[in-house]
Every structure is written in C-alpha cells, then in structure tokens.
TrEMBL record:
<dbReference type="Pfam" id="PF21982">
    <property type="entry name" value="RecX_HTH1"/>
</dbReference>
<protein>
    <recommendedName>
        <fullName>Regulatory protein RecX</fullName>
    </recommendedName>
</protein>
<dbReference type="Pfam" id="PF21981">
    <property type="entry name" value="RecX_HTH3"/>
</dbReference>
<dbReference type="GO" id="GO:0006282">
    <property type="term" value="P:regulation of DNA repair"/>
</dbReference>
<comment type="function">
    <text>Modulates RecA activity.</text>
</comment>
<comment type="similarity">
    <text>Belongs to the RecX family.</text>
</comment>
<dbReference type="InterPro" id="IPR053925">
    <property type="entry name" value="RecX_HTH_3rd"/>
</dbReference>
<dbReference type="InterPro" id="IPR036388">
    <property type="entry name" value="WH-like_DNA-bd_sf"/>
</dbReference>
<dbReference type="Pfam" id="PF02631">
    <property type="entry name" value="RecX_HTH2"/>
</dbReference>
<dbReference type="InterPro" id="IPR053924">
    <property type="entry name" value="RecX_HTH_2nd"/>
</dbReference>
<feature type="domain" description="RecX first three-helical">
    <location>
        <begin position="13"/>
        <end position="51"/>
    </location>
</feature>
<feature type="domain" description="RecX third three-helical">
    <location>
        <begin position="110"/>
        <end position="152"/>
    </location>
</feature>
<feature type="domain" description="RecX second three-helical">
    <location>
        <begin position="58"/>
        <end position="97"/>
    </location>
</feature>
<dbReference type="InterPro" id="IPR003783">
    <property type="entry name" value="Regulatory_RecX"/>
</dbReference>
<keyword id="KW-0963">Cytoplasm</keyword>
<dbReference type="InterPro" id="IPR053926">
    <property type="entry name" value="RecX_HTH_1st"/>
</dbReference>
<dbReference type="GO" id="GO:0005737">
    <property type="term" value="C:cytoplasm"/>
</dbReference>
Length: 159
C-alpha cells in the first residue's frame, strides 16, 4: 500500500481516492489527472493497479455509469461509443456496457431517438430543409441512420 510521502505532499492514492469520491473515472482519465498533479508514472501505474484490485476503480463500472448518464441526456450509441473510446476503454468493455444496458432495458435507441427528436421539435418539418435539420440534429447526437429514419417517421405518433 502506498503511504503518505514526507513533506505534506499527497500520494497518488490520496489524490485518486479524492477524485473517485466524486464520480467514477476510467483508468486513463485517472492516470492523466494524477500525472497532471506531478506524480511519477511508475507510482501512478502501481496505484491504479492497487485501486483496481481493491475494486475502487473499475473501467466496467465507469462505462456503465457513463453510458447511463449519456442515455439520460438523449445521446445515441455512436457518440457514446466514441466518447468511451476517447476515455481509454477497450472495445470489449464498451460492448459489455452496451449489452448490460440493453439487458436492463435502458438501450432502446429507436425510442430514445424518437423522444429526443420530439422533445426538440414540434413536428417532422414542412420542407426538405426542415427535415434535413432534424436529421442533422439526431446524427450529431450520435444516432445511426436507421434510428434517425425511424424517429423521423414515428417521433410524433403519440402527440
């Protein structure tokens, strides 16, 4: 276990625990934050291995938490996947998080695309330009082409 360095400086573990107390972090994010605080890369790697072994840091848990928060924001699977990769998660971890979300009933991307579109726009649009605007909106939020098409056809079915 890494102890407190002399001179009143905080250890990588102390800094990591402080960060993890607020929210989940991926291993890469945590390593970057600890490096920015001036900790040596060897002590960072040792600390992160220790935290993972103790279950205090988990890329799987981070992925699930991140995915859930982005679904609540109305973002699509393409954007979420790219963001998770950017945060240093492997494809298998990402795939597992999406599968868990789907099993929990959180990953109905067609319904989410419809809800996001209906929340932002009052109807499908009268002109090709307006319909294209709605398509761009969903595409920028990370929805796939078939999800965009479905939402354009069904977002206002219950209105």
């Amino acid at each position: 276990m890494l102890g407190q360095p002399s001179g009143g400086e905080s250890s990588p573990r102390d800094d990591a625990i402080r960060l993890l107390a607020r929210r989940e972090y991926s291993r890469l994010e945590l390593a970057e934050r600890l490096a920015a605080k001036g900790h040596a890369s060897e002590s960072i790697a040792e600390c992160l291995d220790e935290l993972a072994d103790q279950g205090l840091q988990s890329d799987d848990r981070f992925a699930e938490s991140f995915l859930r928060s982005r679904i609540l924001r109305g973002q699509g699977p393409l954007k979420i996947g790219v963001e998770l990769e950017r945060r240093g998660l492997g494809r298998e971890v990402i795939r597992h998080a999406f599968a868990e979300s789907e099993q929990a009933g959180e990953g109905d991307w067609f319904t989410l695309a419809c809800e996001s579109l209906a929340k932002r726009f009052t109807g499908p649009g009268d002109s090709p330009r307006e319909r294209a605007r709605r398509e761009r909106f969903l595409a920028q939020r990370g929805f796939a082409f078939d999800q965009v098409r479905h939402a354009l056809e069904h977002a206002w079915d219950n209105a």
